[in-house]
UniProtKB/TrEMBL annotation, chain A:
Any one GO molecular function term: hydrolase activity
Name of this protein: AB hydrolase-1 domain-containing protein
Domain AB hydrolase-1 as annotated: residue spans: 24-260
Family from the record: Belongs to the AB hydrolase superfamily.
Entry-linked PANTHER family: ESTERASE-RELATED
Gene3D superfamilies named among the record's database cross-references: alpha/beta hydrolase
Pfam families for this protein: Abhydrolase_6 (PF12697)
């Protein structure tokens, strides 16, 4: 089933907020939905038309839209993103993507470089698994255990994973992340995690010509700091790394104020 | 039909059944006919249960737990009281449908999500699934009871959110996110000794990759895929295998029968020196003929990993041969032959590109990023399929925050809105025709539109242009504004669905039509949305043509009236010529004059079914007015030719002009058009504009030059356009220092362009930050546009109010960088749309307004310019000048014979930065030097230089402070406003940079002047010291005063007179020095004419 046009906009809960000339896409990562941006959204609505949407795997999207045959690679998510932008008739936009969506943004900018003025990648990683010259943070065996744990008892996995991912000691953020994680149907979560861990963007980074800003927190369970440097060195455009003085994989939940400030600065550069 | 309790009990575990019994008991006690969810809640709350515990954890921290529980019990009790009690007491009030439904729900859920309950492991081990009836656990029962809307309402009344409680129930209390007590099941915490070691091949379908490859193969240009990515080689291999094994079912039909031939081995053998050119050439020839003979779509030549071609070991000549051969192959058999290859990383590809720059074109390559490994065995793991079987989303259990969900009924909502708005529009249009004034429903209504709807106004803008030439601007503006609103809304509707006849747009059209159907279905009462959606979307292709046809007839309906309207226009205008011109219609004309075009452009847009009726009626109105406006156009055009020549704008602008002049004749009292028209020639004349401004402010030549340029340019029709029509508003920014100069230029502009200085609306957006004390010079007069005028209103309401009173004016906004969020938004909107919205969203046209935004910030560096170089009299200090009374003191300076020779006027440095002694010393040595030179007349100047030189030593301290202040100030605002300001500044017609006013030079001049005059009245022997504060006051007065010579006159008339008095009074000797100081604490009682200085000076 292909989602197109308005159906797509509705299915993925696309919203355009704010009153600016320029478009800004805020794309959430794995395990969250667009509500994850609510802490930083108000700082952008006065200056941008902010496009928010849910990934098809998010809990807030009708799980029927998740086609297990289609969403096997990131490319289908890229299709969705580009279709949304086309349906909204966006011709230029800045893109802020977190984690999973950062990968999507990278691929989208390869496919349609003229569409993006800038990519801001938060907690991004081209590859989560370690390789011989690359430290992605995970060993294959570990991943398999995680996936198994997820399948065995989703509930327990969420409760363990949420505080670990949030990192910083912000109970609200943990609760919010748990909520959105819970909202996802477990089989979809599992499937998406597989396709994420299975993806490898390292070979294609050089095809990105849009300038990127990589946001990296001081400690992130999913993304080692070396990955940020790797991204900076291998992405094809002009790239900068911005270190956020906070911990965890979800700075937009745990430190929205800080992130908003840094984002504003990065976007105006 | 209520269910008997015993039947319900069978579905429950023991624990849950006990709760049900309690609930039944509650119902019996209250002699209710049925046991409902509320009874269950009441029973659950009575005992220390999971619910109570969850409530305790989920409660908001604002109230004490005891109070909140009390409230909960109370609200449950009250709701139970409301239930009707049955006449006869039942032994076991049967279970109500809603409660039974909850039980069923939990049962189903438990079956679907065994992993989320503890039964899971039992199922795996003990094969419990065989039991047909699953007993509902208490936890699940509570969860589904909480879904009951009545229950959520009752909980909500007590301040609980049922979703919070649900989460609390699901999360066992022990964990509470504490990492220490509950080891996370993640990575290292997993025991390796887990008995069930399932292998998870990280399989992801290569299907998707193949699909994308096929897409590339189908393209016209760039049809030869080069897979790039770590997994590219695997993807290539899997695609090849897939095709050759005949599993190409995933390929599109056009590619059926495609085959892949691998030249990979031959190539790599050749480049490594293993074969001859002939052999490879032969291979390629074979491939070529294979392609020709092939019956299907052709063959794909797989040249394998590009890495083989760029390795160090291979010879360059061999690679060139391969490349040229492949290029030739493609040239010869391009129709039926594809090339395909892979590169592990982009670097490999760029290296090849570096060697063969034209290869991308020659080989017609399309780099395709490949990011996932292709699958090798089954498509999806079985376990995930088993999970897939469940349909109801787990997420349905947790209500998401509602505002983040956009229901599918969005279009539906807008449809109802449209009807509403057209109705209102018709009402009001009728009212306006009658000439009655209407209330502001429109405004309120527009408020209720979500913001993203309002954005569409941009599109609609071109329709409207108001507020020119009005007798009673306020009332008419209001009316027209409201109509505008209406039109915007309608227009939005029309723009919202934009089906053109081409296919790509048809795609957009169809879903909305679908949704419309859907909403219709909903009205009929089917609540199962998802199923409806499903059926709608399952076969979009089949529903498309029919829907489209449904829409099509409407289009035709509309085109007819429009066409006829266009034809009729001339006819109507002739008719109307004879009709006595009702003033009202005429005043509408400038607005409606712009209508014909947009109206005519309506038909292709009107396909959405619902606004059809409204559009036709509106069209009727529109043409009526349009013809009305047409009429003065034709009749007056000859008479007003001269007038017309002034306008070189678009046609609509001309119509404006004409109607302007006509209304001027009809209503001579029309206040603003007069000067506007009269001033036309002046304004156009750049030189005269410049001369006029330079008369007012002589020190800002460059700024004035660029202002005049900008204004004459805008007036000449090169200003901002909205759609095709010219906008009358001019936006300028005055950046940098010189507050007074900016203000004065603004008021001069007002005077010049709109006749009086009164047409200046001056507002200081930074007034909250600045406390003007009553006695400050700059808080006092015209600069005191501080909070007093609009206390109790927001700034933008004040501005909007003033604009309503005088639409032809210059709006001067000081400290625009300090604008609050509301003002920022309003201004950005205004500059975009030409309409200024107040805080209620009511808009007022600023079509005849010049908006000047002033800021101390300069565009370039965003810092406060004034602190760049040390100055004796920085602007900040002058701005703080107060209106103190002045006083002349006499001091004896003992034992300093040198000084007795000269008369001296000098300015003491600022207080607190130098101790008097060192001043004295420095001054003495310096003066001595100058005495030696004996140039008495140079003294004042020298004194000035002198004092300057002291200050140079000290000012850095002072300046540093200022810089600090400025920086922190700008920092605090920059976070919020920087981006906004930048954007705003980019949109204005002209950014004008101001120089800072040279106070030091002015001070020198004044001192010199005083010195000259003193000599005349006092002789050369007396020293006059002017206190820094006094000097500041004089400078401020000079800066502020309209006349150039105001301070000189004051010196002559007031200071000299006082000095003369002082001489008489004090019997001045050589040792005496007079001091002009300010009396701190006493303020000017009587002001000298023309300057902000005291009319007389005290002598002590």
């Amino acid at each position: 089933m292909y989602l197109m046009g308005n159906t797509l906009l509705e299915a993925l809960n696309v919203r355009v907020e704010g009153s600016g000339q320029k478009f800004l896409v805020l794309a959430h990562g794995f395990g969250t939905d667009q509500s994850v941006w609510k802490g930083i959204l108000p700082s952008f609505t006065p200056y941008y038309r902010v496009i928010l949407y849910d990934l098809v795997c998010a809990g807030s999207v009708n799980p029927d839209y998740f086609d297990f045959r289609r969403y096997t690679t990131l490319d289908s998510y890229v299709d969705d993103l580009i279709n949304i932008l086309d349906a909204l008739k966006v011709d230029r936009c800045a893109y802020v993507g977190h984690s999973f969506s950062a990968m999507i943004g990278i691929l989208a900018s390869i496919r349609r470089p003229e569409l993006f003025t800038k990519l801001i990648l938060i907690g991004a990683s081209p590859r989560f698994l370690n390789d011989k010259d690359y430290h992605g943070g995970f060993e294959r065996g570990e991943i398999e255990k995680v996936l198994y744990a997820m399948e065995a008892n989703y509930n327990a996995w969420v409760q363990g994973f949420a505080p670990l991912a949030v990192g910083a000691d912000v109970p609200d953020a943990v609760r919010e992340f748990s909520r959105t994680l819970f909202n996802m149907r477990p089989d979809i979560t599992l499937f998406v995690s597989r396709s994420i861990f299975n993806s490898d963007l390292r070979g294609v980074l050089g095809l990105v010509k849009v300038s990127c800003c990589i946001f990296q927190t001081t400690r992130d369970v999913s993304v080692p700091t070396s990955v940020a440097t790797y991204l900076r060195d291998h992405l094809g455009g002009r790239n900068t790394v911005e270190t956020l003085d906070t911990e965890g994989h979800l700075p937009h939940l745990s430190a929205p104020g800080l992130l908003a400030t840094k984002l504003r600065r990065a976007l105006s550069r | 039909m209520p269910t008997p309790v015993s039947a319900a009990r069978q579905c429950l575990t023991e624990e849950a059944a006990r709760v049900l019994d309690d609930a039944v008991a509650v119902a019996r006690r209250r002699s209710h006919a049925q046991t409902t969810s509320l009874h269950a809640i009441s029973a659950l709350l009575a005992l220390p249960s999971a619910l109570r515990d969850a409530c305790a954890r989920a409660r908001s921290g604002a109230y004490s737990p005891r109070l909140q529980f009390r409230a909960l019990e109370l609200s449950v009790g009250v709701s139970l009281d409301r239930l009707p009690s049955s006449s006869r007491a039942l032994e076991e009030p049967p279970v109500s449908n809603s409660l039974m439904a909850a039980i069923k729900r939990s049962q189903a859920n438990q079956r679907r999500h065994p992993e989320s309950c503890h039964l899971h492991h039992q199922i795996i081990q003990g094969q419990q699934q065989t039991t047909s009836l699953l007993k509902v656990e208490l936890k699940h029962l509570i969860l589904s009871i909480l879904d009951d809307p009545i229950v959520s309402r009752v909980l909500g009344e007590a301040g609980f959110r049922s979703c919070d409680i649900k989460i609390a129930i699901i999360q066992p209390p022990v964990t509470r996110f504490s990492r220490t007590r509950f080891p996370p099941i993640f990575l290292c915490n997993l025991t390796d000794s887990d008995p069930v070691q399932r292998s998870f091949s990280l399989e992801v379908s290569g299907d998707e990759n193949s699909r994308r490859i096929a897409q590339v193969l189908l393209k016209k240009t760039g049809k030869n895929p080069l897979l790039v990515g770590t997994c590219a080689i695997d993807a290539l291999r899997s695609f090849t295998e897939c095709i050759n094994k005949g599993k190409g079912s995933s390929l599109p039909a056009e590619l059926a029968g495609l085959s892949v031939s691998s030249a990979e081995n031959d190539i790599s053998e050749f480049v490594n020196g293993g074969g001859s050119e002939d052999k490879l050439g032969l291979k390629f020839k074979e491939l070529g003929s294979a392609a020709e003979q092939c019956s299907g779509p052709g063959i794909v030549v797989n040249f394998g990993d590009l890495k083989a071609l760029i390795e160090e070991s291979v010879s360059g000549v061999a690679v060139s041969f391969v490349v040229s051969q492949l290029t030739r192959l493609l040239e010869l058999h391009g129709e039926k032959l594809w090339l395909m290859g892979a590169a592990g990383t982009n670097e490999t590809y760029s290296k090849l590109l570096g060697r063969f720059p034209s290869i991308e074109k020659d080989w017609d390559l399309h780099p395709l990023p490949i990011t996932s490994v292709p699958f090798n065995d089954g498509f999806c793991s079985k376990s995930s399929f088993s999970l897939m079987g469940s349909f109801v989303p787990f997420g349905g259990f947790f209500s998401t925050t509602s505002d983040f969900r956009i229901p599918l009924s969005r279009t539906n909502q807008s449809f109802t809105r449209c009807k509403l708005c057209t109705e209102k529009y018709e009402q009001e249009a009728a009212l306006i025709q009658k000439g009655g004034s209407t209330s502001s429903v429109a405004d309120q209504y527009s408020e209720s539109l979500p913001s993203w709807l309002r954005m569409a106004e941009l599109d609609a803008e071109k329709l409207v242009d108001v507020a020119k030439t009005t007798d009673d601007p306020e009332a008419l503006n209001a009316k027209i504004l409201r109509l505008q609103k209406k039109w915007n809304d309608i227009c939005w509707q029309i723009h919202q669905v934009q089906p053109k006849l081409d296919i790509s747009h048809a795609r957009f059209q169809v879903p909305s039509a679908e949704d419309f159907l859907l909403s219709a279905n909903r009205k009929e009462g089917s609540s199962k949305d998802s199923s409806v959606i499903k059926s709608q979307h399952a076969n979009p292709s089949s529903s498309m043509p029919t829907d489209f046809q449904k829409v099509f007839p409407f289009e035709q309906d509309i085109q007819i009236p429009v066409a006829s309207a266009a034809e009729n226009r001339n006819f109507q205008s002739e008719l109307l010529d004879k009709v006595s011109k009702s003033q009202q219609i005429e005043m509408k004309s400038p607005w409606f004059a712009r209508y014909p075009t947009p109206n005519l452009s309506l038909p292709p847009d009107c396909a959405s079914s619902s606004p059809v009726t409204s559009v036709t009626t509106d069209l009727g109105l529109g043409t009526l007015y349009a013809s009305a406006s047409q009429e003065p156009d034709s009749s007056k055009i000859s008479g007003d030719k001269e007038c017309l020549q002034n306008f070189s704008g678009s046609v609509s602008a001309e119509v404006d002009a004409v109607s302007e002049s006509t209304s001027h004749q009809v209503a001579p009292s029309s206040s603003c058009s007069g000067p506007n028209m009269g001033g036309q020639s002046d304004i156009r004349d750049f030189k005269s504009l410049r001369r006029f401004l330079a008369e007012k402010v002589c020190w800002q030549d460059e700024a004035i030059c660029s202002i005049s340029k900008a204004i004459s340019c805008c007036r000449a029709g090169n200003g901002r356009h909205r759609g095709s029509s010219l906008r009358g508003d001019i936006w300028l920014t005055f950046l940098g220092p010189d507050k007074v100069g900016k203000k004065r230029i603004a008021s001069a502009l007002a005077e010049l362009m709109f006749g009086t200085k009164e047409s200046l609306i001056s507002v200081d957006l930074g007034f909250q930050d600045r406390v003007y004390q009553s006695n400050m010079i700059f808080g006092h007069n015209e600069f005191g546009c501080s909070g007093t005028n609009f206390r109790g209103k927001t700034v933008i309401d004040y501005i909007a109010g003033e604009l309503r009173k005088k639409p032809h004016s210059v709006v001067f906004l000081q400290n625009v960088d300090k604008a609050d969020n509301l003002a920022q938004r309003s201004l950005s909107q205004a500059i975009r749309t030409g309409k200024f919205a107040d805080s209620y969203g009511r808009e007022i046209s600023i079509n005849n307004t010049v908006i000047v935004m002033a800021s101390m910030i300069t565009k370039g560096d965003r810092t406060f310019l004034s602190s760049k170089e040390p100055k004796q009299f920085p602007e900040e200090i002058i701005l703080k000048a107060r209106r103190y009374q002045m006083q002349i003191l006499m001091e004896c300076i003992a034992g300093d014979s040198d000084r007795s020779n000269g008369m001296n006027v000098r300015v003491t440095p600022r207080k607190g930065f130098l101790n008097p002694k060192s001043v004295n010393k420095r001054r003495l040595t310096e003066t001595r030097d100058s005495m030696v030179q004996g140039e008495i007349f140079e003294m004042p100047k020298r004194a000035h230089k002198l004092s300057r030189s002291y200050l140079d030593l000290n000012l850095p301290v002072d300046d540093l402070e200022d810089i600090d202040y400025g920086d922190c100030d700008s920092d605090s605002i920059s976070e919020n406003s920087e981006a906004w300001l930048e954007e705003l500044f980019d949109q204005v017609d002209e950014n004008v940079d101001f120089k800072s006013f040279n106070f030091d030079a002015l001070a020198g001049k004044i001192v010199k002047d005083i010195s000259l005059k003193c000599q005349r009245s006092l002789g050369t022997k007396v020293v006059l010291e002017i206190d820094y504060e006094a000097m500041v006051q004089m400078l401020a007065a000079a800066w502020l005063s309209d006349r150039n010579r105001a301070v000189e006159e004051w010196v002559e008339q007031v200071l000299c007179r006082s000095l003369a008095e002082a001489r008489q009074k004090y019997h001045l000797t050589a040792q005496s020095a007079l001091k002009l100081v300010t009396c701190e604490g006493t303020f000017v009682e009587e002001q000298a004419p023309g300057a902000c200085l005291p009319a007389r000076i005290n002598l002590n």
